Input
Amino acid sequence: MLKDRRVACIGAGNMTEAIVAGLLHAGHLPPARIMASDIRTGRLDDIRTAYGIAVTGTNQEAAAWADVILLAVEPQVLDEVLREIAPVVGGAKLVVSVAAGYPIARVRRLLPGAGRIVRTMPNTPSAIREGITAMAWVEGLNDDDVRTARALFEPIGKVVEVSERALDAVTGLSGSGPAYVYVMIEALADGGVKMGLPRETAQLLAAQTVAGAARMVIESREHPGALKDRVASPGGTTIAGLHELERGRLRATLMSAVEAAAARSTELGLAT
Ligand SMILES: NC(=O)c1ccc[n+]([C@@H]2O[C@H](COP(=O)([O-])OP(=O)(O)OC[C@H]3O[C@@H](n4cnc5c(N)ncnc54)[C@H](OP(=O)(O)O)[C@@H]3O)[C@@H](O)[C@H]2O)c1
Output
């Protein structure tokens, strides 16, 4: 269980802040059980002041202190960070990485003492507790480890479990997806402005329509096609709009966007 553990966040950036804020907000851990390390002392001061957690400028000190180690630095510096903490990471510690495109095998190679490694892919709406995180592991995890890893991310959104191979597809969909949706919201708002709405009103109408429709899909558990059919009455306005979307190949374009981003993720992963 997470509540009995000490969590060290290596790298005190945006992702660590989202997770720390989530853990404290959910009451999963008291601040005394969380420590963050970073090379930026100003950042550490800010995060200590905001959340009351312990901080250190030494990654190894944080890793030695913790039962659960969250790797939250950029992938480019992770090799160096893993070499630094390797002497204090034994098999009793659970290692959870959020580093995009950084394979479990590489963590294992650089942390030979670590037996339990989880790789995750959160997305940016985690910052407002509306994210989704995909979690993968290869072997060596027990049910308690899985629950503990889930408990880190559940306060900042939803969690799904996938195979490590599927993380490129996850990156193409939920990792890059917020950007696709921002473009859609902007375009819908542009349409509203074209039809005479004030920009601010059009943007709110567009954003809340996307948020509301997404919530309808999640909460009703209905197929999005069934929900769409219900909005489109015969000879009505919605079917006229839908026809334009089909003409513009919106579905094929979105599928291609996920495919292209997933392929790029695979390419970048091969390069590490
Ligand atoms: N933000 C997201 O929504 C998101 C989503 C999915 C995955 N991720 C993954 O999460 C990880 C962190 O992302 P982030 O957005 O939180 O990045 P970030 O805000 O840049 O935070 C990383 C922090 O680590 C510090 N750092 C650099 N080298 C270090 C070292 N050797 N030891 C300790 N700290 C060091 C950085 O300092 P400097 O700024 O001086 O380098 C920075 O303060 C990345 O691997 C990213 O792929 C993030």
About this structure: DSSP finds twelve helices and eight strands in the chain. The chain has a mean pLDDT of 96.
